[in-house]
Amino acid sequence: MNESAEADAITRNAKSNLAFTLVNLPEERRRHMAQFYAFCRIIDDIVDEPVLSGSAERHAALDRWVAVITHAAQPTPGIEEEVQTMLREVEPDPAPMLQLIEGCRGDIDQKQPETREDMLAYAYKVASCVGITAAEVMGASNAAKSYAVALGYALQLVNILRDVAEDCRKYGRVYLPAKDMQFFGVSLEDLKEQRYNYRMRQLLAYEAAIAEKFFGEAEERYQALSVEDRNALIPAQAMSLIYHTILEKMQADEYRVFERRYAVGNFRKLWFLLRARMGTVELPLPLPSLADWSFLKNDHSDEKKS
């Protein structure tokens, strides 16, 4: 019997960027990553899908997964059992998985982040924590943690930019910091009414610059890793290329996120996976040093809107 039958089905049906990159992994690690990915997918679906009705039912479903991860509950056959198998065989630190659950829990009755720090705190839970555990499951050492954190921030910021219209329209959620919106003169009503104008473009370009900073930081940290760690993280580097390309598409198109959803085709994804495997992963060079991004410090105390 397939030890990860349900996890494989969830991963296969998701058709996500991450699922696509897993073909690079050895069989056992691919099985473990499929189990971990299925866990992440289920946690996300508990919060977003209409199958569950009401906050109480969603919170109870997340509580059940906390019990499964902490071994406080006997797993049911299927995906719960498969995830516990992964935990037993890989022995990753369970803390990031629990933080992911709590990050997604915040989406049940989501409150707009007030500052960039608030936005990044959310991104850490729902994206960087995924990267931290994924790096362990893929066989990287603890040295890869800072890389996973930086890349998680970058990927989540791209998600926030790409999905800003859908998040607001479909779920009533806004992940852009309130202070940034105020600084650029963009209101919640502008988002709800999908008003595409100069102020909106400037706001999204500003957030995109922050994403670029984290892509550059992740690349620096990746290059500093051992050959063994870099090889283990080939799927993550492919993800970096895929998401950076999505960001570039938005930039070139002046962030028309209300009109279209930006994506990368499967042929190009495969090319990026091959590039990552060949060790030719690179962002447009030269990358600015981290010191060059000082203007992104989230301090508007001395700034005034015209």
Structure write-up:
- There is one protein chain.
- The chain has two domains: 1-109, no CATH class; 137-281, Farnesyl Diphosphate Synthase (Orthogonal Bundle).
- It has helices spanning 5-14, 17-21, 27-48, 55-69, 79-90, 95-105, 116-137, 145-162, 164-171, 178-183, 188-192, 198-223, 227-232, 234-252, 266-278.
- It is globular, with a radius of gyration of 19 Å.
- The protein starts with a helix and ends in a 28-residue tail after the last helix.
- The model is unreliable at 280-306 (pLDDT under 50).
- By secondary structure, it is mostly helical.
- The protein is built from 15 helices and no strands.
- Helix content is 65%, strand content 0%.
Brief digest:
The protein is mostly helical. It has helices spanning 5-14, 17-21, 27-48, 55-69, 79-90, 95-105, 116-137, 145-162, 164-171, 178-183, 188-192, 198-223, 227-232, 234-252, 266-278.
Helix and strand topology:
Blueprint (H helix, E strand, L loop, with lengths): L4 H10 L2 H5 L5 H22 L6 H15 L9 H12 L4 H11 L10 H22 L7 H18 L1 H8 L6 H6 L4 H5 L5 H26 L3 H6 L1 H19 L13 H13 L28
Helix pairs in contact: 1-3, 3-5, 3-6, 3-7, 4-6, 6-7, 7-8, 8-12, 8-14, 12-14, 14-15
